[in-house]
Structure formats: C-alpha cells, structure tokens
Design brief:
- The protein has helices spanning about 5-15, 25-65, 75-100, 105-145, 150-190.
- It contains 5 helices and no strands.
- The relative contact order is 0.11.
- By secondary structure, the protein is mainly alpha-helical.
C-alpha cells in the first residue's frame, strides 16, 4: 500500500502533535547543553591533571636529583621542561576561563562555546601528546649513563611508545566530538 505524503504527514502530526519538519527545540537545546558541559568537564580534568603531573613530577625529579650523589644534567633539563609545561598549561587554563564570557547564552552562543571548547581540547590534547617525546627523550638520556639500566630503558621506550599510540585514540576522539558539535551548528543554522 502506497501512502501519499499528506497521509504520512497527517499520521505524524496526530502522533506527535508536531509537523514533521520542526526540530524539537527543547531536545536540541538539551543536546547542546550536554555536549557543552561534557566538553567543559573533560577539559577541566585534562588541564588540572596536566598541571599537577607536570609541576608535581618536575618538583619530585628536581628534589631527587638534588639529593642524589651524582646529579644529572638531563634530569635538570627534564625538571625545567616539566615546570615550563605545567606553567604553560596553567596559563592556557586561565586564558580559556577568561574567554568564557565572550559567548552569549543563546542556543547558538552555547553551541559556539562548545565548539570553542572542542577546538581547545583538540589543540591541548595534541600538544600533550607530542609532549611525551621530549619528556621521554630526557628521561632516557638521564638514565643512559647508569649501570645495568638497559632493560629499564627498553621497557621505558616501549611504555612511551604505547603511551604515544594510546594518546592518539584520545586525540582522535576529541576530533570526532568537535565534528559532531560542528554538525549540530550546521543543523541549527539551517
């Protein structure tokens, strides 16, 4: 049995009391708010972890190196790198939070804010992913002169390689989230 468009539309209208071509605004707004809040939550956790790990780890490495019988130049360089990374993450977090006020609280404004957070997440996760390489290199160089350390260095290289590979999954997840949010924006504007 073939139905005409008007018959299908009439059935749809009687089921939902809404025309077929209207977007459920409340559901759409809830979707936007959910994506925005999830992005903010993930970003806050990522930033705070990066700040704590880099500043805390840098401090611990510095103290261990100072108290060591044979301080290592590479470990001082690692300390400096981690401290700079932690301070950079803190600076970027404060800059991001200050920029939150530039978005109006309409559906489009919330969507633009969610896109801004998604762009930030993609950039931040990419930077932290590539940050694994200099940290790993400095750790390996710091350990290289030690005796009976070859097994640990090989294990560390494998661990860092696995970490870099796994961080690619996280980075691609953020890219997909960003594309999903940009699609929502296209739908809203159309």
């Amino acid at each position: 049995m073939i139905m005409e468009f008007d018959d299908i539309k009439k059935i749809w209208d009687t089921q939902n009391n809404q025309p077929m071509y209207v977007i459920n605004e409340a559901a759409f707004e809830k979707t936007i708010a959910t994506k925005k809040n999830k992005g903010v939550h993930i970003t806050n956790i990522s930033e705070l972890l990066s700040i704590i790990v880099n500043l805390g780890g840098g401090t611990i490495i510095l103290l261990m190196n100072i108290l060591s019988n044979t301080p290592d130049l590479y470990l001082y360089a690692l300390t400096a790198w981690m401290m700079i990374t932690g301070i950079y993450c803190l600076y970027e977090r404060m800059k991001r939070i200050r920029g939150n006020a530039q978005f109006d609280r309409t559906m489009l404004g919330d969507l633009d804010y969610a896109i801004s957070i998604a762009n930030y997440q993609v950039r931040f996760s990419g930077l932290m992913r590539w940050n694994i390489l200099p940290i790993g290199a400095l750790i390996i160089l710091g350990m290289w002169n030690k005796e009976n350390i070859l097994g640990i260095v090989i294990g560390l290289v494998l661990f860092l390689g696995l970490t870099f590979y796994a961080s690619g999954f996280e980075h691609r997840y953020y890219i997909r989230r960003k594309k999903d949010i940009e699609e929502l924006r296209k739908i809203l504007l159309n």
